[in-house]
Structures are given as structure tokens and as C-alpha cells.
Design a protein that fits this description.
It is a single chain. The protein is an all-alpha fold. It has 5 helices and no strands. Helix 4 crosses helix 5.
């Protein structure tokens, strides 16, 4: 599981590096305007935000600390999947344990 956590964390940090690069390489406003002018760009944005919402639901259900859940969910809609990705890397053992406990309980 440690390798999975490292992999998820590395992917999230790699995405963060892409965000930093993009901010330096192009105007966010102009790029966003180009995306929203194309129908498939709108579909891609809808897909992106649906993913944010689904991640937010999972964080809300699985995170035992409500303040931490909000601290993960709210910035996700501005910073992207780096936030739930880092949360997943940190919380993966807890999530796996909870899923395993439920599977054990349901087989009794």
C-alpha cells in the first residue's frame, strides 16, 4: 500500500507542477475562453466538475473530521484534483481498513 500512496501522491504533485507551468506559460483567462468557446471544451469542464463533486462526496463520507473534509472539498473546486489526490494518499490506509472491516462484517 505504501507504493500506491507514493504513486498517488506523486501523481498529485506532478499535476500541481503542471498547474504551475501552465500559469507561467499562458494566460488563464484566454485559455479558459478558448475552452468555453468549443462545445467539447464545455463537455470537458462539465466532466471535470462532475469529478470534483464525486470526489467531494467521497471525502465527505469517508473523512472522519468535518473541518478537514471541508478543507479538502472547498479548494478542490479552485485548485483541482491535487487536493483530493493528496488527501487520498494520506488517508488510503484508513479507507482500505474501513472497506475491509465492512467486507468482514458483511460475510458474518
Amino acid at each position: 500500500m505504501t507504493l500506491t500512496r507514493i504513486f498517488v501522491g506523486a501523481l498529485s504533485l506532478g499535476f500541481g507542477a503542471l498547474v504551475v507551468w501552465a500559469f507561467g506559460a499562458a494566460s488563464f483567462g484566454e485559455s479558459f475562453a478558448a475552452i468555453t468557446s468549443d462545445p467539447w471544451g464545455i463537455v470537458s469542464l462539465a466532466d471535470l466538475y462532475l469529478g470534483f463533486i464525486l470526489a467531494a462526496v467521497l471525502v465527505w463520507i469517508l473523512e472522519p473530521s468535518r473541518p478537514l473534509a471541508l478543507a479538502v472539498i472547498l479548494p478542490t473546486f479552485f485548485l483541482g484534483n491535487i487536493v483530493p489526490g493528496l488527501w487520498l494518499a494520506a488517508r488510503l490506509p484508513m479507507i482500505v481498513s474501513r472497506v475491509s472491516d465492512r467486507q468482514s462484517a458483511s460475510s458474518i
